[in-house]
Design goal:
8-stranded antiparallel sheet; binds fructose -6-phosphate; 7-stranded antiparallel sheet; Glutamine Phosphoribosylpyrophosphate, subunit 1, domain 1; about 35% helix; about 650 residues; globular; 27 strands; 20 helices; Rossmann fold; alpha/beta
């Protein structure tokens, strides 16, 4: 949902800003821009489309397309692109600047609507992530004062409003502070002012913003990967805080203008996590990272005795009486994270015998939710910044619920506002389509469900120990599934032109099907839907014809025969079929066109990893269609607006 960056220091700001923006491109890529303060004036460059078009605009050189190139050619093209980015410093010079990569909300993607936006005289430049909800009112008031607007964005009002207050005192901090008081909605802002060439003013409310603290240089960014190359010391700005960045120090203030003294936090993410490391795309890299991510998420929570797992322990909290006596689990999340919740519903019901409600956060927040004293409320969010999820969390807290958050992002809003946090240790997820975050979310949820079963006495001791053993083997099972890649790749090359793709399954598999279908939609734009297999004949089967591919998830041996019948039914109507199952030879031998065999995991744990073939299928369909799976159209990774 838009990425913003800023730099002040000794270096030429332009390549620093562009490199940082490249790391945030997952947040939006329909236009990009920078504003750099040169010797006298602010120079603004912006371009519609991905960041490479901005580089082309600045340097006048075409950036080579790295699509359909061999590995060596891709590496060469990437090196050339990196050199082109470095050369931008010859065209736009200055040691302080701000930048933006956009996911359009107000106003179509265009050069004009791209950020930064400036005041009329071009002496104040602003980049913004979020939505100014009362922009129309402010705009008409500013127009009545004679301000002429150039773009259709909500952000432009911020530049003019700051200018309005700047004219009163010629003090940029005062001007930003006053303007913020008038803004309704959400923002992370970076502000540059020609008359204050030594500083950037930044502020946030309901959108993430970090300040990177370097040596003789400081940064702002929407997310940590943007600045990892330069520093690992960061301030996570709190709600309504304002930061003023100089080359040699950073001042933090609350919204009343009072100084805040706080030490920066240290980030120990591996730098390579923000690079493709020889993979063609982040999505493929992140699919391959799942065995490690699952290990990192699982291991610290297993207690070992004589080299065998004997218990589950979360450092973050104790499984106290509230777990034993809980009446319901309520799970709220968006998109992929909510589908992890759907699968977890079956896990909690199976292991802990407790009713579970799963709700899309965007629905939950607009209802008058019924929460009870003995509910356990769980929010799931990779980014920890999804606006709807965050609001659902706040509502739950206002209703008196204790909120447990499962998130991948240390320091995120969700992690700071929840009562207890369980981290998925998946490392940064850069590709827009979530892969390793989903499977690690499931790992956390299964751990909770199994431990809860033990605490409530709904799982026998021996079964508990067996489940722990089986959980420990999940990362290597994930590895085995990834080895099926050539079969999936070939199948994708045969099927990527299909008009309709239906994922079907029963119980756990019916929930997993939703995530499988979403992955395919997102990256390949193929029309895919998920149906519980038993429901097919109640309507959806009318859609099936020879242009249909039906993918069945079949990880429940007791239901193999039922699924096989469903496959025969769609096959009789001309559909192609693929089955993802542990049973490579038996039930599906005569009905499926292709079988992807996944290893037995035991205890219904297959659902943690059964999505992996579907992730690979989505990835390869996108590649076959010449699409960039890392940057699907119309999407952005972190949805920080409603
Ligand atoms: C799909 C995807 C989205 C996110 C959703 C919630 O691949 O990534 O559906 O899952 O926007 O995001 P988080 O988990 O960051 O709250």
């Amino acid at each position: 949902m838009c990425g913003i960056v800023g730099y002040v220091g000794e270096k030429n700001a332009t390549p620093v800003l562009i490199n940082a923006l490249k790391k945030l491109e997952y947040r939006g890529y329909d236009s990009a821009g920078i504003a750099v303060l040169g010797d006298e004036d602010i120079i603004v460059k912006k371009a519609k489309g991905a960041i490479k078009y901005l580089v082309e605009k600045i340097t006048g050189e075409i950036v080579k397309d790295s699509k359909n190139l061999s590995k060596e050619e891709t590496e060469k093209a990437e090196a050339e692109y990196a050199a082109q980015i470095e050369r931008t410093e010859n065209f736009v010079k200055g040691n302080i600047g701000i930048g933006h990569t956009r996911w359009a909300t107000h106003g179509e993607p265009s050069d004009l609507n791209a950020h930064p936006h400036t005041n009329v005289s071009g002496t104040i430049a602003v980049v913004h992530n979020g939505i100014i909800e009362n922009y129309a009112k402010i705009k008409s008031w500013l127009q009545s004062q004679g301000v002429v607007f150039r773009s259709q964005t909500d952000t432009e009002v911020v530049a003019h409003l700051i200018n309005y207050y700047y004219e009163q005192k010629k003090d940029i901090f005062f001007a930003v502070q006053q303007a913020l008081k008038k803004l309704e909605g959400s923002y992370a802002l970076g502000v540059l002012c020609r008359d204050f060439p030594d500083r950037i003013v930044a502020a946030r409310k309901d959108c993430p913003l970090i300040v990177g603290v370097g040596k003789g240089e400081n940064f702002i960014a929407s997310d940590v990967p943007a600045i990892l190359e330069y520093t690992r010391e960061v301030h996570y700005l709190e709600q309504k805080e304002i930061a003023v960045l100089y080359a040699d120090h950073v001042d933090l203030y609350n919204d009343e203008g009072e100084r805040i003294i706080r030490e920066p936090s240290h980030v120990d993410w591996d730098l390579s996590a923000a690079k493709k490391d020889g993979y063609a795309h982040f999505m493929l890299k992140e699919i391959h990272e799942q065995p490690k991510a699952l290990t990192d998420t699982l291991r610290p929570r297993l207690v070992f005795e004589e080299n065998r797992p004997s218990d589950i322990r979360f450092e973050e909290f104790d499984f106290d009486e509230s777990w034993k006596n809980a009446g319901r689990i309520v799970i709220t999340a968006c998109g992929t994270a909510s589908y992890a919740g759907m699968v977890a519903r079956y896990a909690f019901e199976k292991f802990a015998r407790i009713p579970v409600v799963v709700d899309a956060a965007s629905e939950f927040r607009y209802r008058n939710p019924i929460l009870k004293q003995d509910d356990i409320f769980i929010v799931i969010s990779q980014s920890g910044e999804t606006a709807d999820t965050l609001e659902a969390l706040r509502i739950a807290k206002r209703c008196g619920a204790k909120v447990i958050a499962i998130t991948n992002t240390v320091g995120s809003s969700v992690s700071r506002e929840a009562d207890k946090v369980i981290y998925t240790w998946a490392g940064p997820e850069i590709a827009v389509a979530s892969t390793k975050a989903y499977t690690t979310q499931l790992m956390c949820l299964y751990l909770l469900a199994i431990k809860m079963g033990e605490v409530r006495g709904t799982i026998e001791k021996q079964e508990y120990l067996t489940l722990l053993q089986q959980l420990e083997e999940i990362p290597q099972k994930a590895e085995k599934i990834i080895q099926e890649l050539p079969v999936v790749q070939k199948f994708a090359s045969e099927q990527f032109n299909k008009e309709k793709i239906f994922y079907i399954g029963r119980l756990f598999d019916s929930a997993s099907s939703m995530e499988c279908a979403l992955k395919l939609k997102e990256v390949s734009y193929m029309h895919s839907e998920a149906f519980s297999a038993g429901e097919l004949k109640h309507g959806p089967i009318a859609l099936v014809d020879k242009n249909t591919l039906v993918v069945a998830l079949a990880t429940e041996p007791a239901l193999y025969e039922k699924i096989a019948s469903n496959i025969l039914e769609v096959k009789a109507r001309g559909a192609s079929t693929m089955v993802i199952t542990q049973d490579g030879k038996g039930a599906f031998k005569n009905c499926a066109d292709t079988i992807i065999q996944i290893p037995e995991c035991g205890g219904d744990l297959e659902s943690i990893v059964s999505v992996i073939p579907a992730q690979l299928f989505a990835y390869y369909c996108a590649v076959q269609k010449g699409l960039n799976p890392d940057m699907p159209r119309n999407l952005a990774k972190s949805v920080t607006v409603e």
